[in-house]
Write a structure and sequence with these properties.
The protein has 2 domains: 116 residues, Nucleotidyltransferase, domain 5, CATH 3.30.420; 101 residues, ATPase, nucleotide binding domain (Nucleotidyltransferase, domain 5). It is an alpha/beta fold and 242 residues long. It is built from 8 helices and 14 strands.
Length: 242
């Protein structure tokens, strides 16, 4: 059997890793540790290196990062402190500490969405966790990432403020679901997607009365989506140890 793909899902609350096949099938258990705070790049590298140590062989790395990324470099990191991360070449750095295997990195919602979409029409993925992430696809092709989570939603509050874990804990599940419904209607007006997929750690709390164009995935899909980074050509440049 060929070595698998190491999929790493970086979140504001947890760091997850597993080895998957080229088809996205899990080849190992999914490991998870809490995200340390504060979490500068050096601390992140050390924690991830320890996290993946027990996993089986892999020869490529796929990384989902909670912010805007460009060519393996972090542009924003709203849940990890952008001041610590801006401009950091995380794909290359992880490649270096994990044996020099080539690494590709996209936004975490972008990576998770690859495991959910049907690759037909315009599809929006919304992840619900520490904050709210989004990814948009047209006929299976990932569109340029829009950081909608940081866009004002109501008054001076962003989608992150309105629907993130802190808001959920403060207002409770019922009110949070009402907010989610309003946000989805606004996103539908803005983008007119054929279907919307809800995923992430808090998707399990979504009520049953959502419209037919909304599909809920309560299970973790970030790992499986990592395989797609190595199927798709384009701007996701592989980073190797320098």
């Amino acid at each position: 059997m060929n070595p698998g793909i190491l999929a790493i899902d970086i979140g504001g609350t947890g760091l997850k890793a597993a080895v998957v096949s080229e088809a996205g099938r899990m080849l190992s258990e999914r490991l998870r540790v809490p995200t340390p705070h504060p979490c500068p790049p050096g601390r992140m590298l050390a924690v991830l290196a320890e996290l993946v140590r027990p996993l089986p062989a892999y020869d490529r790395i796929a990384i989902g990062f909670p912010g805007v990324v460009r060519d393996g470099r972090v542009v924003t990191a709203p849940h990890l402190d952008t001041r610590l991360w801006q401009g950091y070449e995380l794909a290359a750095a992880l490649s270096g500490v994990l044996g020099g295997h080539p690494a590709r990195m996209v936004n975490d919602a972008d990576m998770q969405g690859y495991a959910l979409i049907r690759a037909s029409g315009l599809e929006l993925v919304v992840t619900l966790g520490t904050g709210m992430g989004t990814a948009l696809y047209r006929d299976g092709e990932l569109m340029p990432h829009m950081e909608l989570s940081q866009h004002p939603f109501r008054k001076d509050r962003t989608y992150d403020d309105y629907l993130g874990s802190e808001a959920l804990a403060r207002i409770g599940r019922k009110r949070w679901n009402r907010r989610l419904g309003k946000a989805l209607e606004m996103l539908r007006t803005l983008l007119n997607p054929d279907r919307v997929f809800l995923a992430g750690g808090n998707a399990r709390l979504v009520g049953d009365d959502h419209p037919a164009w909304v599909h809920v995935s309560a299970g973790g899909t970030g790992m499986e989506g990592g395989a797609h980074l190595w199927r798709a050509p384009g701007p996701r440049r592989a980073a190797r140890k320098r």
